[in-house]
Amino acid sequence: MATAFELLWRDDEPARRGRRPSLSVREVVAAAVGIADVSGLEAVSLQRVAAEFGFTTTSLYRYVPDKATLLTLMLDEAIGAPPDLSGVEGGWRPRLEAWARELHRLFVRRPWLLASTGDQGVMGPNQLGWMDSALRAFAETGLEHRDVHQLFLLLLGHVRGVAGQAAMPDGMSEQWRAEWLGSVSAIVDRRRDDYPALIESIDGGGFEPGDRVGLELGLRCVLDGIEAFVERAR
User: Fold this and answer.
1) Start-to-end Cα distance in the chain
2) pTM for this structure?
């Protein structure tokens, strides 16, 4: 049975002798991605995917050996091809801005990706392509490779964090904010001398809902910091 690595890095599905199979690995993975898009990652199972084609779960083992492998293939399929930044003018900073915005849109459109990325599993061609796309832009800074890797992780972490907040449904987000703010306010109002900065922020509207996307301010700060780092390194 093929491993996740072999399935991810196949060039094309090899022709098989005898009767042609009614499905392909790509079709199975696409069906699983469709389920996750509609119902979330927790809804994906081999049984559910098999039912999409009128198959038994056992029949699906011809294409993927287990759910873990299926999830790995889904991740790379759902991330898709990386953005082409070659047409973005202005150097490394506009290119990283474009990269970050594209990744943010992807995570917001498919929030289930946030729960399935960031581990040390097998990476497919699309995942590596996204990383390579960002590193090409970073290469224009002339920084040391170790520094570039850390700055890449910083940028990626910001995008993931903001996308995770944006992925929360509007009603749930507002309910959580109201409950949290209400409980904190009730505590700090009784101990105002202990938390003066927090009280000032609450009273000043610092925790009121604002731009749900929230990407741009942090992105500007991250890239300002990288730009200053680049200038000092020259």
Assistant:
1) 52
2) 0.84
